[in-house]
Amino acid sequence: MAASLPLGLSWPGDNQLKLTPNLSATFHAYVHIPFCAVRCGYCDFNTYTSKELRGVSQAEFHIPLIQEVNLSKQLLSQWAIPARELTTVFFGGGTPSMFEASQISQILESLEDNFGFTDGIEITLEANPEGLDHLKLEELKAAGVNRISLGVQSFDQKVLDVLDRVHSKDKVIAAVKQARELGLRVSVDLIYGAPGETLESWRRTLEQAIELGVEHVSAYSLIIEEGTAIARKIARGELAEVDEDLNADKYLLTEELLGKAGLKNYEVSNWGNPSLHNQAYWQSQDWWGYGPGAHGHISGARFWNQKHPATYTAALEKGSPAAGFEYLDERTQLEERLLLMLRTSQGVPRSLFRELGVPTELVANAIASGLLELASNDQIKATLSGRLLVDGLVLDFLSKSQA
């Protein structure tokens, strides 16, 4: 089961937040569809199989999501946040492709009716390969989806078995080819570091992704989350511990092969044609998170919904599905900007370190040791070797800051 919700303030009964609008922020929507056919052994996400739904109907779950869309329009007006068109929509989960295309279409119609869409809006839907065929992809495209994020994880069947994934390599290849034939943009999610995975196995997975001609690759190191099936197997000695040194080698290989294929790294774990939606998160733009456990961020306030679909729906009927919120003070916003943006190829302005009170010698030492570099536009960026350590580097900076 997924981790607990964050600690914060209880959501106000009158739904009133006191916000100062950020007039320069773009607006985005994340829609959480929390259903999965099975739970993968490594999964710690807020997802539910049919046995865990407590009577919630997947076939009708688009209805409360649309109710929250309508509510969000009312609350943004109540908070005096100026109306803006949506720049991106992202259907995540769970397995959003378990929804019928007609359900996706109705949610998108509600979002467009309430907010409008910018020209060239990016509309992404996460999907598992086994849930797609040519007809489903055609229907999703007709509904408005123009980008598919495919949960591939690996092209090595042994690795897929360790991760409890149920698709095959051939199904992935077919899904990618069909999506590209329809003109959909395709991103694949890969995971490296599964117990037993070799460097050569990971090389073959990368080469297969490149051969398919996808426009975007997300590659994440496997994190063993407490309480997951894979964590229990490692604890019992049934699977090997994750080898962090080997994972570093896999990351360097990822950069080498994807770079040669023309997929440029733009964030530590992402290569290729950038996801506009993910960039909105890293840049702390405004977004509303719809659905169970979804998080939103509007003008320096962060809020999150009740986690279980049944609890979410019941709370929505009473006035709001939100469980809590927090106001982010200026210091916190600056810290998060450093933590998120230093992971990107854009980096951060050198002045940000001064604003945070990071000792200049710490930054200078990181540059001298080859972990950071100073670009000509006075931006500081992580180098290739720095990307391997960037999160720890930022935490060290903040722990020793003098502000």
What does this structure look like?
With 403 residues, this protein is α/β, with parallel strands linked by helices. The chain folds into two domains: 17-282, Alpha-Beta Barrel (TIM Barrel), CATH 3.20.20.70; 331-403, Arc Repressor Mutant, subunit A (Orthogonal Bundle), CATH 1.10.10. The protein is built from 15 helices and 16 strands. Helix 2 (101-115) packs parallel to helix 3 and helix 11 (330-341) runs antiparallel to helix 12. The two termini are 38 Å apart.
What's the architecture of the largest domain in CATH terms?
A: Alpha-Beta Barrel
Number of strands: 16
**Oligomeric organization of the protein chains:** single chain
Structural class: alpha/beta
Gross morphology is globular
Q: Overall pLDDT, averaged? A: 92
Count of discrete alpha- or pi-helical segments spanning 4 or more residues: 15
CATH class term of the largest domain: Alpha Beta
Termini separation (Å)? 38 Å
Q: Unreliable segments (pLDDT under 50, ≥5 consecutive)?
A: none
Q: Can you summarize the main beta sheet? A: 9 strands, mixed
Number of structural units classed as domains: 2
CATH topology of the largest domain: TIM Barrel
Q: What portion of the residues fall into strands of 2 or more residues?
A: 15-25%
Helix content: 25-40%
CATH superfamily of the largest domain: Aldolase class I
**Lateral strand order in the biggest sheet:** 8-9-7-6-5-4-3-2-10
Task: Give the radius of gyration.
Answer: 21 Å
